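Record 1 of the preview.
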Amino acid sequence: MLKTGTILGLSFGYIGLLFAIAHYGDKRAELGRSIVSNPYIYALSLAVYCTAWTFYGSVGRAAHSGLWFLPIYIGPTLTAGLGLVLLRKIIRIVKVHHITSIADFIASRYGKSSTLGSVVTVIAVLGVIPYISLQLKAISTSFLILNQYPAITTAVQYADIPIVKDTAFYVAMLLAVFAILFGTRHLTVTERHEGLVAAIAFESIVKLIAFICVGLFITYGMFDGFTDIFNRAQKVEALSKQFTFIDRPGVFTGWTMYIILSMMAFMFLPRQFQVAVVENINEEHLNKAIWLFPLYLLIINIFVLPVAFGGVIRFTGIEVDPDYFVLTLPMAEQHEALALFVFIGGMSAATGMVIVEVIALSTMICNELVMPVLLRFHFPKLKLQTDVSHVILIARRLSIILILMLGYAYFRLFGGFYALVSIGLVSFVAVAQFAPAIIGGIFWKTGTRSGALGGLIAGFIVWTYTLLIPTMVQAGLFPQSFVTQGPFGIEFLNPFHLFNLNVSYDGLDNIAHAVFWSLLANTGVYIVVSLYSQPSAIEHSQATLFVDVFKYSGKDSESTFWRGKASVQDLKLMLERFLGSKRTNEAFSQYAATHDVEWKSTLSADAGLVGHVEKLLAGAVGSASARVLISSAVKEEPFGIDEVLDIVNETQQVIAYSRKLEKATAELKAANERLKELDRLKDEFMSTVTHELRTPLTSVRSLAEILHDNPDVSERKRKQFLTIIVKENERLTRLINQVLDFQKIESGRMAWNLVDINMLEVINDAIAATNQLIQEKQIQLTLDLPETVPPIRGDRDRLMQVLLNLISNAVKFCDRHQGAISIRLLTNAQDLHVEIIDNGIGIAKENQALIFEKFRQVTSSEGTRPTGSGLGLSISKSIVKFHKGAIWLSSELGAGSTFAFSLPISKKQNS
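->
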């Protein structure tokens, strides 16, 4: 029997164990014997990504939608592969600039803007509150389910539970105590919390083992393995459709949007940024984490489908929330110990996320909201105090309590209306709004503060409109018509298919729809405003330091973008107020030893020391507030010649890049015009081929119908008709063969049969094949052929095709009344030259280079086009080119044409 006291005792005992692990980790760090400075702990800390959503919600999503739970894990897996490129660069920037949070990162990149940092903080807090509420809901619901054992019911009315009896409220308070003790004990210049990371890594192990245990129990205890579960699931109507998803409308569009969303969430959720970037001790840990973390995701998801399908099968006819199958299945089989272990695993998944999230958010609130206000309105009082670090710590601790209370309030108001996954995805879309400003900021120097600010606001407004407000509709805060008919009945503004983007038709559910519109607005505004706004000097310098971080991070900390005067004593006193005397003395002594200076006897600080102090302050109060503090103690001067030269050099690089961009744009424009021309020619070619196919087919059909309908037609007429049918059939065959040959040549799949060839024989055979055509047109044929020629190496049939094309063209364009064609074969030491000369209409100079191009046909002086596909000469050119020969034309309008080609003599003959 699972009594309330047993469950609570185990829960508090487990949290007490986390306290002990965190305490041990902190103590080891203080002794310089870190237990988290290895890639395995780092990879396990990244698994804070797997929250109660993963532990409970993925099963629920799989039960409803089959494989649709996978994109949320495919995204981080793909992102892990980018770790050596993207994450390493972000980590390097954070280390160099002592950045403490994602808000601090964005604010620092765009000119250390306090306004931008404040906006990011507000978005982060409002966006992540639903996600924190999800964890509290999971803990509360799982406790209530387990507390009702042996009865199994998941129908919980949270509104009926008084706050004083709500487990979630007390868990929230307990987590607040944990976060305060191990996240805000003192201010540091790195904001690393090694004890916290150790506890999170331990929780990652617990939740993984718990999920594997319940998965093994269900798969091999309740069923006879994977095959048995899937075979049974196929017989359940509600599950059989989950085995296939390819035929669902827009499935690939939806998967793509979810994968992109999860990639951004993995990088830009405040807790993920905290563990992956801020808490990182060694960049080299990424080398193992990029495969250890995906491996973790793979293992924890192996049993999701078996648990989901097993739950549906086991609870057929019973109303049980699929989100909690992982807990209710062991309870249904009366495995109390396993149910308790699963409960602890779910608690691990939820508490780990909440603890890291509130610490990250509290740092942002303090540094980006509280500190700017204090510095703006109460700095004179702070300036008189010897130590203001306690003010900052109090602000952070109060922030932690505030965040958890907001998360609890959201859970009480809205959590009961939505599944776990639905709540979590709302937060994912919110933090995805940081992606354009961050990714653009570390790779694109042109990005400006105005662009980042405008993009974030635009994306946040769309997120609020398409996701946040609709979640309040279910709670009755907005009318139902808001999501069914649109505000004020304007369907065009319906938040679920904004601007008439049909969600169901285009394969976008409400989440993917919000991702599309919010990121489109965000990225579009960011790029456009950045291109049309002028960055300040500090924005320009920060852009260079971020984008080229690997270039500058290896150098001295002295900024090449600052020049001024400052007192060492003033800087020291300022730093002591925020870090305390001990840490300040350590920092100054370390700087003096590194730069071989005696700071105690130095009166004036150089740029390097000023920059170093600013970074130390940034680690405690954020880059924007640090900038304000430094400005109050430092008198800046105009740039010297060296600094100016550095900026000029940077400007020259930008100008050179701009010129390259202009050149590339011109080339792109030319290529685009070429594509348009090819597209036009393709259309003409299709029209010509269609016409050429239709004409002989019409003739054949007409004559065949005459013969069919008139069996008594005379023998002479019958032979005449059959002769025409044969000729038209040959014409069709030639046309089709040309199209097929062209396709084979273009795709590189033409089969070549190379042998030694006597070109005299090929010419004579070509003349024999076209002799009837020549006689019908009463053309005079003249031959100028030597008695013998050296052999060439080639494909006889293809060279025969070239001659037939050229002779047929000569016949087609000969003089209508006194046609004459001359065929000559000339030799020299290296080549054979074949010439076909006619006395036809000739070809204008401007068209002579075009006729060998595909789809090209030259219009006559009367404005008509010749018959044929327009591919013959293009194919002939390709064949001759393959044989390492050349083909050309000499002609004058009205004076006939000479088509000639050369082929190299066989090397064996030359030798």
